[in-house]
Amino acid sequence: MIRVHDGGVRTTVQDAGRFGLYHFGMPPSGALDDYSFRAANLLVGNEEGAAVLEATFSGPTLEFEEDAVIAVTGADLPLKLDGEEQPSWTSLAVKGGQVLSFDFLRAGARAYIAVAGGIDVPVVFGSRSTYALCVIGGLEGRAIREGDVLPVGSARPAAAGRTVDERLRTALPKEVELRVNMGLCDYRLTDEGRRSFLESEWTVTPAADRIGYRYRGGQLSFVEREQPFGAGSDPSNVVDVGYPVGSIQVPGGVEPICLLNDAVTGGGYVTIGTVISVDRDAVAQSKTHGKTLFRAVGIEEALQARAERRARLDAVRAALS
What we know:
alpha+beta; Cyclophilin; 2 domains; seven-stranded mixed β-barrel; 14% helix; elongated
């Protein structure tokens, strides 16, 4: 068991996600930075999809009531055991009674805290992930807070001292480039609007969370048209479409929003592009006021990026096997 002394800004239980229900309006939830999440589980000997804690901007303070093996990956969020700094991206032995805490964030936005055995909250619709909008999953469908007790599952034998090579860790640049497959509705943009989207430097606004990231920067212009039947009157409205995870919508035609794991699954706003799956990890590690550039790519480059990420994970698996 793990006793929570402080939940941090927003720390939730997340696993690999809740799939197969998108057509019913249920998004996947799950860890936003999938690579760091999987690496954390591999370090402590869990199945890759086991439930972990996803800490945003600040870490929780946790007391372990029993011996455990843990690992922290993702953002550069310095961790301490009983006040002594410990390495991240490394499996650590924790004694019963020890307290895990965190210093101030140095880079990135989200850290992943894995415990051998996984966080053993109930499975809801096939996942332990927290979906706070519907108050399901995780711990009572919410972020953890002071006084909570987190159950831990039965652990496989896990060794302390295993580490992920620095070359295989998540990059945390100050300026992020996101690769985008343009569409479904980029035909609604004028040529000038498309250029502005791809050539402007965008800034992450404070409206950035697990639902989506809103950006401010360039000016987007839309092709004039008569309002079609079934669509709203705003130029950024279309007849309702499904929203892929990572899709970029432009409500009001002003500030693009990249929809993430807890977002609605469809609606009537233009979706001008979709951030490729690999680069959603980079969105998750972007901080408020961070700088972002969008670059259009085709499906071939997106698939190549996925293959390269798979190879990096294979290298982590091989090193820790």
